[in-house]
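TASK: fixed-backbone design
INPUT:
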């Protein structure tokens, strides 16, 4: 595993998002984009966990709270899909937390409510990514 592999995977995931967006355009519900992205990524051979449960531990005890990530691709990238007017700092914080709890090196925040989805994808890395070899 290295930074190049993780970065390439995010690039390919973004390619799937571009294909979905070209076909559907902006203005639909987030859930529609999630299902179409899942289908597109599976067509492209990715291993995707959809609505991945994230265990929450507090003071050594697993909480019964249910937290879910939109998608985890190849156990390396958490994909958080939005269909909102503007990406807010809380959306980025949410993705950072998912990455930390799932112990994956990269996250990808994609907003489908845009005319140009190429500019809406935001890769986010953490210490796990920074510790990977080039």
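OUTPUT:
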């Amino acid at each position: 595993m290295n930074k190049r592999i993780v970065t390439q995977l995010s690039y390919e995931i973004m390619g799937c998002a571009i294909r979905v967006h070209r076909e559907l355009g902006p203005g639909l519900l987030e859930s529609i984009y999630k299902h179409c992205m899942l289908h597109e990524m599976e067509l492209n051979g990715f291993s995707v966990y959809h609505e991945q449960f994230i265990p929450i531990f507090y003071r050594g005890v697993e909480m019964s709270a249910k937290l879910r990530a939109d998608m985890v691709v190849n156990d390396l990238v958490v994909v958080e899909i939005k269909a909102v007017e503007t990406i807010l700092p809380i959306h980025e914080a949410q993705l950072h937390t998912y990455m930390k709890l799932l112990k994956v090196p990269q996250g990808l925040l994609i907003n489908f409510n845009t005319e140009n989805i190429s500019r809406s994808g935001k890769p986010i890395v953490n210490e796990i990514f920074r510790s990977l070899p080039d």
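COMMENT: The first helix runs from residue 3 to 24.
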